UniProtKB/TrEMBL annotation:
Stored Pfam families: Aminotran_4
UniProt source species: Bifiguratus adelaidae
InterPro entries for the chain: Aminotrans_IV (IPR001544), Aminotrans_IV_CS (IPR018300), Aminotransferase-like (IPR036038), B_amino_transII (IPR005786), BCAT-like_C (IPR043132), BCAT-like_N (IPR043131), BCAT_family (IPR033939)
Keyword Nucleotide-binding: no
Protein's UniProt name: Branched-chain-amino-acid aminotransferase
Amino acid sequence: MLSRRGLQRIARGITAHQTPRRYLAAAALNGLKASSVEITPCTLPKTPPANADLVFGKTFTDHMLSIEWDDRNGWGTPHIKPYDKLSLDPSSVVFHYAITCFEGMKAYKDKDGKIRLFRPDMNMKRMNKSAARITLPTFDGDEFLALIKKFVKEDAKWIPNERGYSLYLRPTMIGTQESLGVGPSSRALLYCIACPVGPYYKSGFNAVKLLATTEFVRAWPKGTGEAKIGGNYAPGIKPQIMAAHEGYAQNLWLFGNHHELTEVGTMNCFVLWRNDKGETELVTPPLDGAILPGVTRDSILALAREWNEFKVSERKLTMPQIKEAVKEGRLLEMFGAGTACIVSPIKAVRYQGEDIAIPLDPKDSSAQAGPWASRFNKAIMDIQYGEVEHPWSVVVD
């Protein structure tokens, strides 16, 4: 436990790398325990909206999961309780220094009515990594996942039955210390809320147009791009509005003098082409600290390597190379990938004042997705909804 002098140093704005190690290990005082959860059922349950009326992130379920932490005691008692507002002091550090991280995951119902989660262990690992990056407490991923399963079962009626629909889960952690000093938070709140969702794009599984931007930068190597933290997202809102104003669905984030591809909006980016050696190759930017290690990204890479039908690479790729490949007829497909949309086909990129047409399906001029984007999307959905038995699909007993 920190001495009074240690706490004073933190209050004065000590940086994370100067913080005593025992402070960062305080989460070990009391570990997170799913067995101690207290459940308070909602007495005024709502009626879930019809699938056709769902808007992403607008309607929330009857309950929420909540666990408090402090640097003296560690993790407190978990609570599954009626969904309600949070009560925080105006000086809480989350409001001033963006000390917050989160995850995006989904619960599905298969044709037999069983509840399934898709690779939830990866979300637990990534959230712990994000928390550690901004000096929030870490937790036992298995215990938190057990709590999320209990929470999902409590709100099982909110999980849509139809394929393409799911219950979006938002695990979140915030620093709640009441202080204006820049330093690790002595208190935190870990919680999870949920909302039923349909397809991310109302237009369905249709190709989108991107605006390649060099005016703004989303992230940089050795920065925080690999962590799912709040501070990464607010700066992207203005460029997104600018792109939408010009008729583009998302930004294609470029980095550096060579205009390296990084991400598509809030998704990972994939390119399928014939490289300069004549090889058919699936390429996605490497995890160099600027790229979020997406669960869908990892799933696509794993499937592609398992299928073994073309070369699979994680390496740098530039927009001039994309432009040249399109001109020479070597670019086959391009798509984004993420939890919300799974796969988002790309049909055009505006770069340096020019709209570059991206191929879709050469066998079907009316297609809104290339054959490989469609195949990856279907393969992942088949696993998510239990159509194909796979270790990535975790049944909630």
